[in-house]
Specification:
heterodimer; A: about 575 residues; mainly alpha; two-stranded antiparallel ribbon; about 65% helix; B: about 200 residues; 2 domains; 6 strands; about 50% helix; about 10% strand; elongated
Chain lengths: ~575, ~200
């Protein structure tokens, strides 16, 4: 690494440190941190929201208990899923289809519909080959917003569960109001501004199909079989903005943010990388404001940042050292003033290994899943980092809403374990944690690993599912891809063909489990805590804002993931590294 | 179940409202502003020569003739296919991939008159993530310069100067990595040859 690479990483940190606190305060204010009942943007967005509520026939003052809240969320997700499925199947006969795409097949459309509704954005297809502009705009872009909006609603409901202490207030808010609010007041204005900034840098934003360019070197036409090159078009900047900000990650084009028209230069790269992380971290700040104890946010943010920094640095060193097999073949991977060096297979010259691994850490620490380089071509250890971070359960800092939700569940587990050690009833933020919550918590913890390991094991035994590369790398691919699906990430070890019936269906199921089998128990925990009286803090209470507790939560996250996944990782990336 | 059915109406209406607002108004408004404010950039930053579009400055293009700078290997379709962006996704120990590296290293040395055993810059023999990488490293460009100059009958210094001129620095001096824009260099070289 060069000093510029270090400054680049620090620039990202600085950008986050400057922008996260104000955005966090804004989010908190949007969700009712002000005592006078007003929220920012009331004058601009208030009328729009009220008319949406009227159209939907929602009484915005009527609050829901956790089960109704969860049912509303499921109803919205189901309708979204069916709508998107229909759109993908029918796109061939619908307008805005300048490149003449046919309808998507049944299992493929199921997979994609689930993928975008669950905020995963797993893509078994190539965007520019399979989808019409209409599907991209009306289908995928809308779900990019909506699935992130659901994430906002879920975490706000959970926070209300933790903070409401009077017996009359066993409700968690109104799902529809929360969904519309986060989407309209946070995601939409941010995305609009961001889309214009990146469009000014060269990200495409038009409604055209391909522009045909005549090749400069006529002799090259023979080797590629065409005298022209297609310059693709499309409403790309608007989609890239929300795919980055909404922790979605589904690229307009197959190559995602490695594509020069999605991510043309190192400046857009830094901004898009920032956009991955800013809302998940800002939500932690908002959490501290809403629970009226900002020390809690500092602790949770520190735990998240610790994982993120360690994993990213680990991958960065592995990738900048390059692939020893190439060195043995006379390839110069050294770092000098005239080349960035390192393992460049699957990476763009303009980014180099540092900007790529910085992104890889960010995209797998959140459940974003967009990529600016191909993770499948990483060195074994370089690829281990992103994979392990997903297996931690996407808590560093995780997807919008669901990331903070995951770390809070781990914090409850940590207070429970600490409670067992000293023989006291565990408490978190003054709420007693009892058997009912612990049962739900166990459900939560088991769902993702069961889906990941179950489907990965089944895939390894089926001959027809053997679309992976030979050797231990094949196991890495299967593990990575199910880790991605079950954690709603969406990045891939993309050599493996996942467009088959087996993978589109099983990955679709894994995504559904990873989304709803986590959100519903978490909402149930919040519902069970809501209205429980606050117990006074005594000298025997375990404070949850100290470094000691931070270490405890970190340990819990590592132990749960480590015990579950270490044997599989040993046979995949670790074995591959040892055979280099 | 009744509760669920009651929530279907708001679900359906909310989806329709979102579809209009976020699926139509938002992308169309963004398109309108972007087209007015920076149409050239928003249309793919195309490069024209004598009124004909010959490429995009952001997208790499295939070159095989000796008088042109050659881009990196590409896994996009048959090579630099703008409608099929892709990386190879080959794992680091994949044997087909390592065999391809051997071939590319030999071909690169051969093309550019390098002795056996000479080290070859990594970007010259590896495919990018998009398959459309517009850049090569400065080291790679400099190694190709003598061949390009010989094929054109130009002094090497002139070719190096064109390369220098179309080298993109790091973003604000610290972001990403510098690279030489292959298409822009080659278009400029053609102009130089014609003019001279």
């Amino acid at each position: 690494m060069t000093w510029q690479n270090v400054v680049q990483a620090l620039a990202l940190v600085l950008l986050l440190v400057v922008t996260v606190p104000p955005l966090g305060r804004y989010i908190a204010a949007v969700y009712g941190s002000r005592d006078d009942g007003t929220a920012p943007g009331d004058r601009v967005f208030g009328p729009l929201e009220r008319s949406i509520h009227r159209l939907c026939r929602i009484d915005d003052r009527r609050e829901q208990r956790w089960n109704v809240y969860a049912i509303s969320m499921l109803a919205f997700s189901l309708v979204s899923l069916l709508g998107l499925y229909a759109l993908l199947r029918l796109q061939g006969s619908l307008p805005f289809n300048p490149t003449d795409r046919d309808g998507v097949g049944p299992t493929g459309a199921f997979n994609t519909a689930v993928s975008f509704v669950t905020n995963t954005n797993w893509q078994w297809y190539s965007g520019e080959v399979a989808l019409s502009h209409l599907s991209q705009m009306l289908g995928l872009a809308v779900q990019n917003f909506a699935s992130a909006g659901v994430g906002f609603a879920v975490i706000i409901a959970i926070i209300r569960g933790i903070t409401r202490t009077t017996h009359r207030s066993r409700t968690l808010g109104n799902f529809w109001v929360d969904l519309v609010r986060g989407t309209v007041r946070i995601l939409l204005p941010l995305s609009f501004l961001f889309a214009l900034v990146i469009a000014s840098q060269g990200v495409v934003q038009n409604l055209s199909g391909h522009t045909s360019a005549t090749l400069v070197d006529a002799a090259a036409a023979e080797s590629v079989g065409s005298a022209t090159q297609a310059i693709p078009g499309g409403p790309v900047a608007s989609q890239v903005a929300i795919k980055q900000l909404g922790t979605n990650g589904g690229g307009f084009y197959n190559a995602n943010s490695a594509h020069p028209l999605e991510n043309p230069n190192p400046i857009t790269n830094l901004l898009e990388n920032w956009a991955i992380l800013v809302i998940p971290f800002a939500l932690v700040v908002a959490f501290g404001i809403l629970v009226r104890d900002r020390r809690q946010s500092r602790l949770l943010a520190a735990v998240m940042a610790l994982f993120l920094v360690c994993v990213t640095a680990f991958s960065m060193f592995a990738e900048s050292n390059g692939n020893p097999e190439l060195t043995a073949r006379g390839v110069d991977q050294s770092i000098s003033t005239t080349q960035s060096g390192g393992n460049l297979e699957g990476k763009e010259v303009r980014f180099g290994t540092s900007a790529c691994t910085l992104w890889a850490g960010s995209t797998t620490g959140t459940s974003n899943g967009s990529v600016n380089c191909m993770h499948d071509s990483f060195t074994p250890l370089g690829g281990l980092g992103p994979m392990f971070q997903m297996m931690l359960g996407e808590v560093s800092p995780g997807g919008i809403g669901v990331g903070l939700m995951g770390l809070l569940v781990n914090a409850l587990l940590a207070v429970f374990i600490a409670g067992l050690m000293v023989g006291r009833t565990p408490e978190y933020l003054g709420r007693k944690i009892q058997a009912a919550e612990m049962k739900l918590l166990t459900l939560y913890i088991l769902a993702m690993p069961a889906a990941l390991l179950g489907f990965a094991a089944a895939s390894m035994t089926l001959d027809s599912a053997a679309t992976y590369q030979p050797g231990p790398h094949g196991l890495s691919e299967v593990l990575y891809n199910f880790a991605s699906a079950a954690n709603n990430n969406g990045s891939a070890f993309a050599y493996q063909g996942t467009g088959t019936q087996w993978y589109t269906v099983t990955q679709g199921i894994a995504m559904l489990i990873g989304r709803f089998f986590l959100i519903i128990p978490a909402l149930a925990i919040a519902g069970s805590l809501a209205g429980r009286p606050k117990v006074p803090s005594t000298s025997g209470t375990l404070p949850t804002h100290t470094p000691l507790f931070g270490a405890l939560v970190t340990g819990v996250v590592i132990v749960v993931a480590g015990l579950t996944f270490f044997p599989a990782l040993a046979l995949g990336p670790i074995l591959e590294h040892l055979s280099l | 179940m009744r509760v669920f059915l009651r929530q279907l109406t708001p679900a359906l209406v909310a989806l329709v409202v979102f579809t209009v607002l976020l699926g139509l108004v938002y992308p169309l408004a963004t398109t309108a502003v972007a087209q007015v404010a920076f149409g050239h950039r928003a249309d793919g930053s195309t490069v024209e020569r004598d009124g004909v579009v010959v490429g995009s400055e952001l997208i790499g293009q295939p070159f095989v003739s000796p008088q042109y700078l050659h881009p990196r290997p590409s896994a996009a379709g048959a090579g630099y296919d703008g409608s099929a962006s892709s990386g190879s996704n080959a794992g680091p120990l994949n044997e087909d991939f390592l065999d391809a590296i051997d071939e590319r290293v030999a071909a690169y040395r051969d093309e550019n008159g390098l002795p056996d055993g000479a080290e070859v810059p990594v970007d010259a023999v590896t495919a990018s993530g998009s398959g459309l990488d517009p850049h090569i490293s400065i080291a790679n460009a400099r190694l190709q310069a003598p061949r390009v100059a010989a094929a054109r009958g130009l002094p090497v210094e002139d070719v190096l100067a064109v390369i220098e001129e179309h080298t993109d620095d790091r973003g604000i001096a610290v972001l990403g990595e510098p690279g030489v824009n292959v298409l822009l260099v080659n278009v400029a070289l053609d102009e130089l040859s014609q003019g001279g």
